[in-house]
């Protein structure tokens, strides 16, 4: 599994940073790319990657500010011509998303040739999708903005060939049948598959924020605790904490301070203002803990298992 930042900028695009779009590459797990936000020129960013639009089956929109959604109608329209015909797609997002998309498609005469479902979300709900449960939490922005926590389902442990050999069952086609069954028979005996597998594999947890001020409530902190990856905005990186608060955004010092009390694997800082020069960002990153990254467009971060805990 890998997290890719397609657009790392805040508000206005620049030549280097497009506005916000992310992709959670879960092709190895569920044969899908999960998209989070769809900033302007999303389609152009995808052209530089190996992402197949037909494999995007679920899109999660954090909030309805233009820098997070203006690429969505274009992507949805083009997807049909990129192998997505008849392949269903669900878009989750705040109230108003369905109306905006319906009016846009109607006025522009766009017709999709695949089933599109638009689901408007609310704080506190849990969405069940292939391979994941997705927790929804309201953030603190000047319009409704949401955090999505992708909780990968635990997987059954792999078969242990050594244990099977002990009862005389050698590797072969029977292993595939046993793996998917609760019990199996061999030489007239009935066995429980669970006695021949390793421990269950714990799913990973990826927390992706929309725009927000720093939040410190116990409910929010416990939702994030144990994340393998946290993606959080850092619209302000230069100490302007008061300004960040006034404009409903975050300053990086506060973000880092807040997460000191929880365990997490890595932290990606995104949604960066294009007023910051590369030199400033390089110097800043050198001062940060080694598991905190200032991202750029096309930044890729593999998400390994059991990576929780401050390094
Ligand atoms: Zn934004
Ligand atoms: Zn915003």
From TrEMBL:
Comment on bound cofactor: Binds 2 Zn(2+) ions.
Chain segments annotated as coiled-coil in the UniProt record: none
Enzyme class, broadest EC rank: hydrolase
Species of the source: Salinicoccus kekensis
Protein name: Ribonuclease Z
Active site: 67 (proton acceptor)
Role summary: Zinc phosphodiesterase, which displays some tRNA 3'-processing endonuclease activity. Probably involved in tRNA maturation, by removing a 3'-trailer from precursor tRNA.
Cofactor: Zn(2+)
Binding site for Zn(2+) 1: 63, 65, 141, 211
UniProt-recorded Gene Ontology molecular function terms: 3'-tRNA processing endoribonuclease activity; zinc ion binding
Assigned protein family: Belongs to the RNase Z family.
Enzyme Commission code: 3.1.26.11
